[in-house]
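TEACHING EXERCISE
Course module: macromolecular assemblies
Task: Read the component lines below, then compare them to the predicted structure of the full complex.
Student: A.B.
Group: 4
Components provided:
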Amino acid sequence: MAQYGLLIDATKCTGCHACSIACSQYNELEEEVDYNRLEFVERGSFPNCAMDIVPVQCMHCDDAPCVNVCSTMATFQQEDGIVGFDPQKCTGCKACMAACPYDARALNEARLAEKCRWCPEMLQQGKQPVCSSTCMNEVRLFGDLEDPDSEINQKMAKHEVEQLRPDMGTKPRIWYIKK
Amino acid sequence: MPKMKRRSFLKASAVTAAAASVPLKMSFADYKEAAEEEEGYKIPTTCNGCSSMCGVYVHVKNDRVWRVEGHPVHLKSRGRICARGHGMAADMYNKGRVQGPMKRNANDEFEPISWEQAYKEIGEKLTETIDEHGGNSFLWLEHGVRGQRYANPLLDKIGSSNYVTHYSTCFSSKTNAWAEMVGTTLNGDHENAKYMIFEGRNFAGAIIPHGMNQITKAKENGAKIVVIDPKHSEIAKIADDWIPIKPGTDLAFRLALAHVLITEEKYDKDFVNGYVENFAEFWRENKDKSPEWAEEITGIPAEKIREVAHDLAANAPEAFIEPGWHGLHCHYVNSTQTAQMGIVVNALLGNFYKRGGLMPSADPEFGTFEHDGWSEEEKGPRADGAGVAGEHYTVEASRGIAQTVPDMIEKGRIKAAFIYHFNPLRTAPDPEYQKKIKNADLVVSINIDWNETSVYTADYILPESYYLERTEVPQAVSGHISHDYPQISLRQQVTEPLHDTKPLREIMQGITTEMGMGELYDYSLDDEIEAMLEPTGLSAEELKEKGTVELQTNKVEASFPLCPSGNPNLATSTGKIEFSADKFRADGKAGIPTWIEPKVMPDPSADDEFRLIHGKQPYHSHHVTSNNPDLIKLTKKYNGTAMWMNTKKAQKLGINDGDIVTVSSDMTEKEIDVKVTELIHPDCVWISSAYGGFSDRLETAYNLGVNYNDFIPVMVEPYSGTTMSQEVIVKVAKGGVS
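Instructor-supplied answer key:
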């Protein structure tokens, strides 16, 4: 069984937002719902200053607070590591939204707390999720963490990586290449 | 059980019912090669989110356009597309589209009219106008250049020289300099470069996805990226060095780069001796343009200028100043000289026709479609004076001067105008002035949506079918990036038109038939496609199926064009790169670029004065995408309408991040909120070029943000005819308009 993960090289992101809009269209999201976002952080002072961009989305945590708090199993861990969501079981209690340290869940008009699914239909075809496949700068590399020859493992081995809020103990499936 | 309610492009729109009943054009089932993979089908075509026309696949599901992905072969997309490409597909279902032909009535309101009646009335009026004032009183105004194919038969037949593009509002200073000095344009070979300067050029804002991919790959392979721009633009995000220059002074910076290369003998002497004309004259004129001289003007330390010049030389010929596009090239009174200096510095590096330097586009050999009905009458002088002795002689006549149409009408030179795929009321300076286009005897707008130009000036609106609803002639894939082999792509119909719209050729055929010139457009698109593809060996069927095809002929080579005798053979009078432009000299102007002061400068003692600069956001194509709900969602989420202001200057004015301020120039005053940031030069404020919609029939764009064109008068840059859109000083005051 493949174990999926995502390696993000945020140093290459130029903030075009194609990832976000490709996701919205693929998943036919409502206007108020987004599965991923960019966070912009300025550092330094003129003229010695720069902009950092951090893509943020559901981290598909191994120890996911949203899974732990969900009383109806609407949010659950799949065997491949992806944190799945079954809208039929969601009661809209919003406990998952409160529990997520990454603010990665969005309430839709039907008051269901939607989230990234990592495009299972694309994975079945052996393709990357649409946020990755459309990214012109190849910021996002999705792959199988179990396969030692996978591109993601090879790239991860070459770089120092970090995760967002490791202090939360959530064991995210998304890594970021350190600057 | 609650049900997931999916937003669709059709949600809550009046066209929903109509769209649901529109049958799919099943003949395209032939091309649904990937239908087995997913629900629905996909068709290869080209994007219209900007003018790069990237290859895409459009997926259709449940009879609706669902999503878009990049075409894997197309050299501009290579499987990847930007936000615009995704978002603009959905605009097919935008409520702002004109749903059928319209006529302005006596109450100054639009009412529907049948195509037949519109053709009849327009045909009669145009015939009358030509009979009375001559064919040269007709103007064709468009973004360029897709409509030209269908404008030309009419322009030629009636004898009008007045084909005008938007280029003078965008980049004519660059193309004019290249045409005069090089006789062609070349592209940066980003993939193989070791050192790239992007000066006023935001490649990550304008975006050719595969171009950006090549740039980031080159960087991973060790290439250095230097961005020179008053604003920390998106491309600056991946730069090794961001050098914020005082806006309007790039010419001085480039003159100083040349000075270092020449005085320190770091230029490519063999290349200059063999392929450059007028080097000695150039140097005589510019011997005093030292880095110290430029430091005073640009604010960039002389040592930094030397460092950049040294790095360029050390990496040459795999080093270049990116030839650029809009950025710098319609912005200042010295924009033509700035473009000229881009050519001079690159030539000093000897990077022309070199891998990693500047390379030509690979072009396919298309056949020419000839039609018996076409003839060419004698034409009068251009109404905009472009190329006309005594008027704007040095302006490229093939591009014209788009911002002065009201003047052409006021002078009685133009009586009837067709405006195709262009919105000068929002994308040219001074909208109040542009509204006078209405004073022509006949204005026909052939546009997709209820844009400002249609609403305020048109007598008739003849809506063209959306790009996903029409097929066009094959295109050569070229421009701005380097690739060895030519590619051909096809824009083709993905679904039936949602509304009562038509492709341009049919519209022109309808009008001209009423004028007794029906023979002009009496052919089919298939005839054109077949004639064009004939020499390529490619069949129309194959191109339709594949969308984009790469040919294995006409490979570009990294070698300077030479005559059989071995002499340089560029399309200039000497065959060489000419550091002095013949045409400029013939008009009594300077052929050799040298320093010209910007037209205006902010008063250094006035803290509230700024130069107003603008640029492209990566999710908008100037104003044309501004009514797109998907893209405006990004604008709202990331506060894209805010005006950028340097932190220290804001502090002096007591302005905090998010404050509302009043921005005023001699033309207008507007309210806007401020983004206070370190990432901009203190001498300027920056706004996106996307906003300031004032057509109330485009409800997403309406009254959202402000536009730089509101603040500038109509001006004509003396060499190339551009708008000089950053030659404007604004005053900024805390608080709203009082």
